[in-house]
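The freezer alarm interrupted the setup, so I double-checked each line after restarting. Inputs confirmed:
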Amino acid sequence: MTGPVLVTGAAGLIGTVLRGGLPERGWSLRSLDVVPVPEPRPGEEHVVADTTDLAALTEAARGAGALVHLAGIATESTWPAIAHTNIDGTYCALEAARRAGVGRVVLASSNHATGYTPRPDGGLLREVDAPPRPDTYYGVSKVTMEALGSLYADRYGLDVVCLRIGSAFPEPTTTRHLSTWLSPGDTVRLVDAALRTPSPGFAVVWGVSANTRRWWDLTAARALGYEPEDDAEVYAPALVAVHGEPDLTDPVHARVGGEYATAEFDSDNFDV
Amino acid sequence: MTGPVLVTGAAGLIGTVLRGGLPERGWSLRSLDVVPVPEPRPGEEHVVADTTDLAALTEAARGAGALVHLAGIATESTWPAIAHTNIDGTYCALEAARRAGVGRVVLASSNHATGYTPRPDGGLLREVDAPPRPDTYYGVSKVTMEALGSLYADRYGLDVVCLRIGSAFPEPTTTRHLSTWLSPGDTVRLVDAALRTPSPGFAVVWGVSANTRRWWDLTAARALGYEPEDDAEVYAPALVAVHGEPDLTDPVHARVGGEYATAEFDSDNFDV
Amino acid sequence: MTGPVLVTGAAGLIGTVLRGGLPERGWSLRSLDVVPVPEPRPGEEHVVADTTDLAALTEAARGAGALVHLAGIATESTWPAIAHTNIDGTYCALEAARRAGVGRVVLASSNHATGYTPRPDGGLLREVDAPPRPDTYYGVSKVTMEALGSLYADRYGLDVVCLRIGSAFPEPTTTRHLSTWLSPGDTVRLVDAALRTPSPGFAVVWGVSANTRRWWDLTAARALGYEPEDDAEVYAPALVAVHGEPDLTDPVHARVGGEYATAEFDSDNFDV
Amino acid sequence: MTGPVLVTGAAGLIGTVLRGGLPERGWSLRSLDVVPVPEPRPGEEHVVADTTDLAALTEAARGAGALVHLAGIATESTWPAIAHTNIDGTYCALEAARRAGVGRVVLASSNHATGYTPRPDGGLLREVDAPPRPDTYYGVSKVTMEALGSLYADRYGLDVVCLRIGSAFPEPTTTRHLSTWLSPGDTVRLVDAALRTPSPGFAVVWGVSANTRRWWDLTAARALGYEPEDDAEVYAPALVAVHGEPDLTDPVHARVGGEYATAEFDSDNFDV
Amino acid sequence: MTGPVLVTGAAGLIGTVLRGGLPERGWSLRSLDVVPVPEPRPGEEHVVADTTDLAALTEAARGAGALVHLAGIATESTWPAIAHTNIDGTYCALEAARRAGVGRVVLASSNHATGYTPRPDGGLLREVDAPPRPDTYYGVSKVTMEALGSLYADRYGLDVVCLRIGSAFPEPTTTRHLSTWLSPGDTVRLVDAALRTPSPGFAVVWGVSANTRRWWDLTAARALGYEPEDDAEVYAPALVAVHGEPDLTDPVHARVGGEYATAEFDSDNFDV
Amino acid sequence: MTGPVLVTGAAGLIGTVLRGGLPERGWSLRSLDVVPVPEPRPGEEHVVADTTDLAALTEAARGAGALVHLAGIATESTWPAIAHTNIDGTYCALEAARRAGVGRVVLASSNHATGYTPRPDGGLLREVDAPPRPDTYYGVSKVTMEALGSLYADRYGLDVVCLRIGSAFPEPTTTRHLSTWLSPGDTVRLVDAALRTPSPGFAVVWGVSANTRRWWDLTAARALGYEPEDDAEVYAPALVAVHGEPDLTDPVHARVGGEYATAEFDSDNFDV
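Predicted 3D structure, all chains:
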C-alpha cells in the first residue's frame, strides 16, 4: 500500500488513540475531522472537513492508501442527527474511497448493531450468530454501515473490514466493561491488523480485548492477524469492590448492547 | 384489531393489488400515497401525503389498527433518493405508528437486502441463512428497514413483520421469475397472514409463491399462516420456449438478487 | 440532428413506449431516470440521475441531439412534491439543454393544464381556445412547463414542442378515454413528429389519437406532421356495455380534465 | 366583508402606495412584510413574516376579509430565487387564504407574464389575446401565479383577481412608460375595485392608467369598477424632449414586456 | 489596484448611489445583485447572482480589485432571513474575496450594530466607545459582519473597512436624521476613501455626513481620507416646523439606533 | 428562582462538570444534549434534543428557572458547521428561553471571541478593553453569541451572563494554561455565581481560575460573586520542566487566543 491512511473522526477518542499508535507501526496518517486535530505530529497531514461533504471527502481521499472511518455520533441521538451524520457520512466515506481509488476501508461499527442479542447460555458468541438486532438508532446506523460496506465489497471489489467495537475507553469503568473493553493498545493492534491483512474482502469482527470475562468470539478477528494483549480483569478487583459482582441475568449483562438495550434508552424516557 | 389498515404507497403496483384483495378478507383500508389513489372503493379512506412527512403520517395513522408500509422507490436509484425516500420514509412509518399507538406494522422488505447471497448447493435457503448482503443502494435501504423494524419491536414492543418480497408482478416474465414470483393472489394472502397472525413480535420472511423452482424456504412464512396457492411453473413452457432453460451457474440465477447482483447494476455502468 | 435523443423519465409508462418505438424510426436513445431503465436495448445509452440535479442533467445532455422531458409526478400530489419534481425538474431540463447546446426539447405537458376548460357546445377545441385553466397542482405545473418552454424558445431560440397529452395508456379503460386516449403507437408517432418537424419554434399541441369521440382539435398537431392511426372507438362497445353511454353533461365528460376537474380532487377530500 | 385587508409585501413600492390610499377608501389594513413596515398608521396592524412560511402566513390571515398579495421579487432574478420567493410564495398566499377562510385574493401579476406578446397592428390588446408568453423567469412566476389563482377559484370557489401591472412608479421615466404607466392613484383605484367588485370569480386584467398612448385594453378592468384618472401623457413633452419620439418598431416598444423581452435580459448577458 | 470594484447589492439604494458616483472618481464597476441592475452604464459589468451562493460569488470576484459588500436585508426581519441573507452572505463575500485573491473589502455595517448604545452626555461618540450592542437581529448580523471582517484581516491579511452607516437616504426625513444622515454624495466620498486609503488593515468607522447635530465622531473616518461635504442642517427648518424640536431624552434620540432601539421593534410587537 | 436549570450540551466536558457540581449547591438540573447524558443522577431530568430545533428546545425550557447554554462545537470547524450549530443554536437557546418565560440565561462564550487581542504591556486585561477580535470562525460565533445575548437583555429584559471561558480542562497541560486554566471546581463556582447574582442585566466576564500567571482581569467576574479557589501554578513546575519557561513574545502567549490566533489555524493550513 502506498499513500497515507486517511482517518476520519481523527480528533475523537479512538482517533486520538490511532494517531498515537499507528505511526509507530509504520503508517503515515492523514487526519480528518470537522474540527482541527490538536497538536498534529511531524509528518501528519490534517484536514478540516465534514464527512457528509462528499466532494471534500473525495478530495481528501486522493492519494490515500486506505481509509479508516471513525467519524460520526458515537452514541444514541435523535434520528435526524443519526441519519445525517452516521448514515450519510458512511456512504460518503465509501463513495469517496471508490472515487479516489482507495482500495481498503476500515469501518468503525459497534456492538450496538446487534445490541439486543442475548448472551449465549455458554461459550462465545460468533459474529455470524449475531445478525442485526440494533438497540438504538445509533445501532441502526451501524447495521447500515455494515450493509454499505458489504455492497462496496461485492459491487466494487473494495476490501472492507467492519469492527464491532466494544467499549473503547482508556480504562474499564463498569463491570460490563470487564467483558467488553477494547483497550487503547488493542485498538491500535486491531486497526493495524485490518489494514495489514491480505485481501480480506468483506469482514465483520468483534473489537474487544483478551478479557477474561469476554463472551464475544475472537476467532474471526484473530484470522485477520489481531493479537490482543490486554485483559480488563486487572481492573476487576477494584470494580467489583465498588459495584459488586455482576448479575449476569440483569439485561445490562445479558445482552450484547448492555444499557443501550434496556428501557432506559427508550426515547420516551429521554423526554421530560 | 380495530380501525382500518393504513397502507402507504397504496397507488403503486402492490398497493393496487392489496386495495383489491384485502377488503374481501374483511380489512377496511385507509390508502395513502403521494398521489391520489385511482378510483377509491366505497368505504375506502384515502389520504395524499409524503411518507417522509412525519407529522402528516402520524396524523394519518391515528385510529388505524395496523400499518402496511409499501411506499418508497421500488428499485435502484441514486443514494440521495434512496436515503431520503426509503430510509427516512421507513423511520417515519414506524415512528408514526408508535406515536399514533398502532401496534402492528408490516414492512415491504425485499430479496435485494441479501441479493448477493448465493444459491445454496441444494435445498432451500432460510432467512436466517441469508443475513444482510445487499446488491444495491435499494438493498441497503431494505437492510435498514429490517433493522429499524427490529428496533421498534425490541424497544417499543411493536409487532413488526418484514416481507422479503421476490418478484411481485402480475405474471412472471423471465425465467428467474419461475423461482421468485410472488403472485397477486399470494401477495394478498401473505399480507393478510402478517396482519392476522397472533403476536408475531419481529419476523422476517420470504415473500414468494409456491413455485416449483423456488429455492427460498417458506417455513417461516407458513408459520405466520401464509398458504400460497400459485406456482409460476404454469408459465414455464412459454418462458423457456422463448428464453431457453435457465443456466443456474449464471449469476442472474445463482444469487438471490438476480440481475441486481451483477455488474450490470454497478453505478459506473449507469453513466454514459 | 446528430447525437441521441435524451429521454428523461425513461422508465415510466410513456418512456417505456418510446424506448420501444423510437429506435425503429431511426432515433438512437439515451434513457435517463432516477431508477435504472429495465432491460436496456443494444445501442441504448442509460443514465441514472434525478431530473432536479441540474449538474447531472447537463452532463447527461452533452452531445444529445434533442431532449424529450417526461420525468415528473404523473398525477396530482402535494404542492411541495409537485413544485420540486415537476416545476424545478422542468427548469433543469430546459436549462440543461441550453447549457449543453441541445437545440430541441419536447415537453410532456398535459390536458390538465387546462382541465377546467369546458367542452365547447359543438366542434373541436383548439389549443388557443384553451388557455391555462389547471384542475390540480399537477395542472399548474404543466402551465409552468409550457411557460418555461415559451421563454426558452423566445429568449434562447430553442425549438420547444409541448404535448398536451390526453390519456396515454395501453388501452382505454373508461368512457372518457373514448375521447381522450392517446394510444402507444400514436404516442410514438406524435413524439417522432415533434422531433422531426423542421423549426417548430414554440408549439403547444394536443396529444390524442384519432378517436371518433374526440373533441380536441388536431389541426395543430397535424401541422407538425403527426398522423394518428388509432381510434378508441374499437373499445367503445365493451366500455359502454359496462359503464353505459357517457352523460356529456356530467363534469367528468364536460371538462377537459375529466375527474381531475371535479370536487373529488379537492385536496380537502384527500384528508381522512 | 369584515376584517382587515391583509397586504403582503406591504413595505414595498406598491405596498406603500396602498398603505397610504386604501384606508381613506374605508379599508382597514394588516400589513405584512419580511421587514417591518415603516411608520405604521394608527389602526394599521402589522406583522413581520416571510411569505414562504405557510404557517406564519395562515396565522396572519386569520380574521382577514381579503388578501392582497404583493410580496415577491419584483424583477428578473435567478431561477432558484424566483421559484422560492415568487412561486412558493404565491402558493402560500392562496393556501393561507383558503385555510383561514379568506374569500377573496388579489394577486399582483405582471405584464411580463406575456412580455413577448407583440403589439397588435392597431387597436387595443385584450387580456384574452395575450396568453402566457413570459419574457423572464419573473414572468414565468407570474404565469404560475395566474394559474394558481385560477385553480383556487375553480377548485375552492375563492374570488381571485389577477392584476397584470404595467409600470407602477411614482412617475413615468421612459417613453415606454407613456403607454404602460400605472399611477399611484390608479393603483389604489384598481386594487379598491378588485376588492369591492361583487363576485368576480376569476379575473385577469391589465393594470394601467388611462394613458393616451396605452395599447392594453381596459374593458375588463373597467368591468370590475376600475375608473383610472391619470394619463402619462402629461409627462410626454419632457420625456420626448430627452429621449425622442419612441420608435414603435423597436422591440422595447413593440412587445408587451419592453426591455425584458430583449436580448439584454438573456441570462447569458448577465454574466461577466 | 487593478480590476474593477465588485459591488454586491448594486441594485439597492446605496448601490445605485455608488453606481452613479464611483465611476466619475475613476473606478470601474462590476455590479452584482440578485436582480439585474437597471440601465447598466457603458463599461459597467453586471452579474446576477445570490450572495449566499459562494461558487457564483467567487466566480464574480475573479479579477476584481476590491469588493464592496452592500447586499443583504437592510432592516429588521425574521431571524432565519437575517441569518441566511446577512450572516451567510457576508461570510460568502469575504471568502469569495479571499479565494479570488481580492485584497480589499468594504463592508456595509450599520449603526444598529450598537443601536442600544446611549448618547454620551456631551461630546462625540467614538467607535471604540461603541462596542456591540445591537438593537435588532439586523444589528446582530452587523456585529457578526464586523467580526468576520476582523478575522479575515487578522488571519488572511485582507484590508477590511467596515462602515457603520447612519441614515443613507436621498434626504433627511425625520429629526433624527438631522444627526444621522449620510448624504448620497458623502456615501460616494466615504466608499471612495475606504477604497483608496493605503493599507487600512481593519477599520470600523461611522458613516455620517458633516451634520451640525451629529454626535458620532468622524475622526476615524477622516483618518481614512473621508471629507464629508453635506450637512443635514439645511433641512432642519422644514423638519422642525413639522415635527418640532427633537426631545433628546426620547429614546429615539438618546440611543444610537433610534426607533430600532425602542419597544416598537420588539418582535412581539410585530405580531397581530 | 423556581424550576430546574436547563443545561444544554450537558453530555460534554463542561456539562459533565456542572452535572456533578451544581446539584450540591442546591440546583436541580434538566440535562439536555443531542446524545443521552451518561448515568443521570437521581432527580436529574434529561432530554435528547438538537439545540437547533427551536420547537424541541422551547418545549424543554418550559418550567425551567434558568438556562445554561453550553451546546455547540467547542473548537474551530468549517463555516457551515459553525454557523448552523453555534450561531443558530444560540439563537434557539435565547428564543426558547424567551418563549418559555425563562428569565435568566448563562452563555458559554470564549476567549476566542477576542483571540487576536494582544497581551497588555502590563497589568490585567479587562473585558471592556477586549472587544470582538475573533481568531477563528468559532470565535466569530462567540462574538455573535454575545451580541444575541445583549439584544435579548436590551430588547426583552432577560438577564444574560456571558462567560468568556479560558481553558476548561481537568488539569492544565500546556504552559499557556498556566494563565488561562479554568478548573472544574471554579467552573462550578462561576456558573453558580452567574445563576445566583441578583439582576445582572447583561454581563460579559472572563472565566478563569485564580492563576498566578493570569493576565485577564477578574474584577467583573468577582462582581457577580465568583470566588475562584484554584491556581494552575501548582502544575507549573511539572509543565515548565517539560516545556521550558514560556516565551511571552511568542504569539501563543502574546495573544488572548493562543494557538488559535496563529497561522497554524489558517484554514489554508488545514488542507492537505
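Quick read of the result. Chain B has a mean pLDDT of 95.
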